[in-house]
Amino acid sequence: MTDHTIVYKKQTEMYDQMVSKQPSLMNVINDITSIEQLDVIDMGAGSGRITTILAPYVKSILALDSSTEMLQLIEKQLDCDDNINYKTQVADHRNIPAENESADLVVAGWSICYLGSSNVENNVHNIEVVMKEIMRVLREKGFVIIFETMGTGFETPNPPEFLKQYYSLLEEKYGFSHKWIRLDYSFDNIEQAEELTRFFFGNDLADKVVTGNLVTLPECAGVWWLEKET
């Protein structure tokens, strides 16, 4: 089993290469809310897959992550453009370092799951605290958009059992709208497909990639969104 904590601190470049093989999320986000001139918070920003595509168009963006090393990758990508208004900060989702009603959009990609998984102690409480923090920093009529996995290696949704409770809470308790999308990995060749899959997802899926010659690895992603009421 891959230790993602180590990945996010010690193998950031390889992680960034892997997620770069998926499609951009720009259109998905813009279909929910126009991003032009918004103040944005990216929770669990990772290597910047969302931050870097939004940054040129928004008024400001605050990229948060628990990994200093991941945030350094974002800084490396954005420091060359003086017109981009961004900040990075190490943070926990349960304590967002931002003022009340300071953001028009909060995005969280593949990150709340690490607190909300049913195999994490106090997961339901964690989700409640995170939701309160998101609502605290959002302005009226602002949006929160959450991305999470609905199954890697599957062509239709097949979410992990330990995430189903979290997903149900988003929809049933907190009132999020939801859809799923395909977000397949398109690798350059089978050697790269095996290397990157084995690196992050482990041997079982990597063996499936090799056996099936899956240069394109299917991935289903869930999208949850909610507008803060006035």
Note down, in words, how this protein is organized.
- The structure is a single chain.
- Helix 2 (12-19) crosses helix 9.
- The protein is α/β, with parallel strands linked by helices.
- It has a single domain, classed as Vaccinia Virus protein VP39 (Rossmann fold, 3-Layer(aba) Sandwich), CATH 3.40.50.150.
- The protein has helices at 4-10, 12-19, 26-32, 51-54, 68-78, 113-116, 123-137, 164-172, 190-201, 203-212, and strands at 39-43, 60-65, 86-90, 103-109, 138-152, 177-182, 185-186, 216-217, 219-227.
- The longest helix has 15 residues, at 123-137.
- It has ten helices and nine strands.
- The termini are far apart.
- Keywords: Methyltransferase, Transferase.
- Residues 42-146 form the Methyltransferase type domain.
- This is Methyltransferase type 11.
Topology of this structure?
Layout: H1 4-10, H2 12-19, H3 26-32, E1 39-43, H4 51-54, E2 60-65, H5 68-78, E3 86-90, E4 103-109, H6 113-116, H7 123-137, E5 138-152, H8 164-172, E6 177-182, E7 185-186, H9 190-201, H10 203-212, E8 216-217, E9 219-227
Parallel strand pairs: 1-2, 1-4, 2-3, 4-5
Antiparallel strand pairs: 5-9, 6-9, 7-8
Helix pairs in contact: 2-9, 9-10
GO biological process, one term: methylation
Family: Belongs to the methyltransferase superfamily.
Domain Methyltransferase type: 42-146
